[in-house]
Design goal:
The complex is a heterodimer of chains A (111) and B (115). Chain A has 111 residues and is mainly β. Helices cover 0% and strands 55% of the residues of chain A. In chain A, the strands form 2 sheets. In chain A, strands 2, 4, 5, 9, 10 and 11 form a 6-stranded mixed β-sheet that branches. In chain A, a hairpin with a 5-residue loop joins strand 7 and strand 8. Chain A starts with a strand and ends with a strand. Helix content of chain B is 0%, strand content 50%. In chain B, 33% of the residues are buried.
Chain lengths: 111, 115
């Protein structure tokens, strides 16, 4: 089983502040995905990154894939209460079509 | 499209009881998956299926069984419930499963408590 480590485990910030969540592995990803999960619901895909060094933006969310394809980060600018949720990174390793998940970062944005 | 639907939403079982968690998708996806999510542990793959009639074990299959008689349905069976199976169970599906960023669509989950 490939291990994905996410940090921090919990993050609580004030509305308007910025935050960054990290996802790391000792193995190379073939691709990496970020999901957001709200209480009582299943995870919903936010983005997929495939190329080392790739940066993708989704409104106030910026996703970066490390050059070595072993790490990724999610940055939220001017966080809003609607950004509250569990952020999960998930990766495909080599040609394995099974998705491996990190433990998640619980983000709380206070109004 | 309803996407991926799961029933029931919540269930309490006594130790040793059995039950089936239902999962249905209406997107004509070939691949279907069952995960369990425990606090602070992320999602662990229990079983998956690459098409009707074909299933295989994931990371944590012990204590569970699955079947895939149709493209739409992928039920998960617990034969002898144990407290260690207390968890939230998610079913997911994807069109293909080639490991290059294929999107998985998740159901809303079934919360199971075994006492």
């Amino acid at each position: 089983t490939q291990l994905l480590e996410q940090s921090p485990q919990f993050l609580s910030i004030q509305e308007g502040e910025n935050l960054t969540v990290y996802c790391n592995s000792s193995s190379v990803f073939s691709s990496l995905q970020w999901y957001r999960q709200e209480p009582g619901e299943g995870p919903v895909l936010l983005v997929t990154v495939v190329t080392g060094g790739e940066v993708k933006k989704l409104k106030r969310l910026t996703f970066q894939f490390g050059d070595a394809r072993k790490d990724s980060s999610l940055h939220i600018t001017a966080a809003q209460p609607g950004d509250t949720g569990l952020y999960l990174c998930a990766a495909y390793f080599s040609n394995d079509y099974k998705l491996s998940f990190g433990a998640g970062t619980t983000v709380t944005v206070r109004a | 499209n309803a996407g991926v639907t799961q029933t029931p939403k919540f269930r309490i079982l006594k130790i040793g009881q059995s039950m089936t968690l239902q999962c249905t998708q209406d997107m004509n996806h070939n691949y279907m998956y069952w995960y369990r999510q425990d606090p602070g542990m992320g999602l662990k793959l229990i079983y998956y299926s690459v098409g009707a009639g074909i299933t295989d074990k994931g990371e944590v299959p012990n204590g569970y069984n699955v079947s895939r008689s149709t493209t739409e349905d992928f039920p998960l069976r617990l034969e002898l419930a144990a407290p260690s199976q207390t968890s939230v169970y998610f079913c997911a599906s994807s069109l293909i499963g080639r490991g290059r960023g294929e999107t998985q669509y998740f159901g809303p989950g079934t919360r199971l408590l075994v006492l």
